[in-house]
Amino acid sequence: MRVDKMIGNTGLDTRKNIKRNAKKGALVINGEVVKDSSVKVDPFVDEVFYMGHFVEYIDNLYLILNKPAGVLSATQDRDKTVIDLLDDFYLNYKLSIAGRLDKDTTGLILLSTDGKFIHKITSPNSQITKTYEVKTRDKIEENLIEEFKKGVYIKEDDYTTRPAELIIKGDKEAIVKVTEGKYHLVKRLFSNLGNEVVSLKRIAIGDLDLDPYLDEGDYRELTEKELALFK
Ligand code: URA
After folding, report:
1. In ligand 1, which atom is closest to the CA atom of 104?
2. 15 half-sphere exposure, CB direction, 13 A CA radius
3. Domain count of the chain?
4. Does the active-site annotation cover 4?
């Protein structure tokens, strides 16, 4: 593969900068300064250093994280973000978030360097189901099951939601499955029907469940098998 792609995949720098910096001698392949960033390397054999950093080959990075409350699902902010939960090693990668959660929402977040993967999960067209565990202020009435299924009119946005599934688990507890990623969607479904969400946790995206062994704030790379769920 081209060496600028190999470096670019890690998020260390943009291809444009790599080209410029290589001309200035920032690229070292197998101990030799190489000024042309378009040369091809075998990432499993050749040893590449860029700006003094060893470049570890990575095709793309996919992380599953259990977001605690109080942390923002953003990549940059003055307040604490999910990126601040990661080890320094991962800060070299240009990670994006596949479907944000509110600051007070907990649970499954996916982060990746793979733009196509992020798009697949977040695009309204792909209609991937997001599953939430919900606790509410008031008793959840049975008639809400039908209301969710029909789609709920959201006054503030003059918008009717796509059909959603409501599975009542207790007086004030339910599972909600939605296929769109609108801002505050689950909270709005309930508030527009006269109830209020007091606790929200995302427990699945598509067929990928939140790993019960991941404590809040913990993360790991997705396995090949998990990744295949989105293929
Ligand atoms: N719906 C919400 O209201 N909040 C979230 O964080 C996710 C879905």
Report:
1. 6
2. 8
3. 3
4. no
* Domain region containing 45: 3-54
113 touches ligand 1 (CB under 6 Å): no
Whose Cα sits closest to atom 7 in ligand 1? 101
Buried b (16+ CB within 10 A) or exposed e, 129-160: ebbbbbebeeebeeebbebbeeebebeeeeee
187 in contact with ligand 1, CB cutoff 6 A: yes
Q: Is the dihedral of CA 188, 141, 135, 132 positive or negative?
A: negative
- Ligand 1 atom, smallest distance to 181 CA: 8
Structural tokens at position 54? 């060893």
- Residue from 36, 42, 84, 102 carrying the catalytic annotation: 102
d(CA 202, CA 209): 9
* Cα 66 to Cα 41, 109, 158, 216, 226, distances in angstroms: 36, 6, 33, 5, 15
Whichever domain contains 37, its CATH number is 3.10.290.10
pTM: 0.81
Q: 197 and 221, same structural domain?
A: no
Write out the chain's pLDDT in tens, 231 residues. 899 988 987 778 888 999 999 999 999 999 999 999 999 999 889 999 999 999 988 778 899 999 999 999 988 888 999 999 999 878 878 899 998 999 999 999 999 989 999 999 999 888 899 999 999 999 999 999 999 999 999 988 899 999 999 999 999 999 999 999 889 999 999 999 999 999 999 999 999 999 999 999 999 999 989 999 998
Residues 115 and 8 in one domain: no
